[in-house]
Amino acid sequence: MKRTCIVIIVSFCLSLNFSACLFAQEPNRSAETVVVKLTAAQLKAVEGVFQSPRNPDMYIQFTAAEDAIVGKLLWNNNQVRLTPESDLTFFNKDANEGSPLRVNFKRDSAGVMAQFTMGNNDVWKKVNNYKPIVKVEMAHTPEQLKPFEGLFQAQNGQQRFIQLYEKGNQLILKEHPDGNEIALVPESELSFFIKNQLLFSLSFSKDKDGNIAQALMNKRDIWNRVPPYHPATGQLKIFDGKYQSKDDGDNYVQVITRGNNLVLKQLWDRKEIMLTPITENYFYNDKESYSLAFQKDKEGNYAQLKVLGIDVFMKVKD
Known about the structure:
Largest sheet: 8 strands, antiparallel, barrel
Number of domains: 3
């Protein structure tokens, strides 16, 4: 089975190329471009710092550079050189897969370049008071990080989980099922960041009893803390059975209850993987970063198995 990395950081646009970081998908249009020659004054006219409409901490700076302009992502310093197609449109044919990346500027009533759009038509507006993001690690001890340890599930209901634990006086975020890890440090009592990716943020909220109950990632994605799950004896038997790959009918797996865990046996190579219950229908092997998620059919029976979040198997009826 293939394993596909679902990298959380990618969704945060922390280290992608210029166009991907801006969520840009260039609409279908001709790949042909016409280069024009602009004066130094025309190039200087587009200089400035522009703010994202999606995230107020995201800024791009444009500067003139000989016969082109350079766009710089101020949160990670990635840059791209853009060639003029007109005095308002600039492009880079190599920055975006497929058709060229285009940046389209627009003047205000005074003739000043006040905004630009790119790809998905988000309007980035020029700012005159840009201040770099500054985050300072708060003094702390490993004991202060312990209350944040635990498993959190995406609030959107998907089988997406992150696991947090203290290591080396840092809070480690581990993704499920891929096992990718990033190290966080506190900026304040309830807010954390990545030292080399200041745009990323993880803040926590407490319940009425003062316990960590929820995490807010990048000011938009909510993750709820998952309480420890302990199935009753024999409760996992409902998952036992043989499952057939939806994509390859020759591939089967066998699910077997073993104590309070499940064992997945790959019938093509007889390999067995022990998995621990995380929720009533989600199981995980921490060492191998391996996950199983079961889904019910319309009759309420667990009839589908998703391995590693991507490979679907259907339960074979007796």
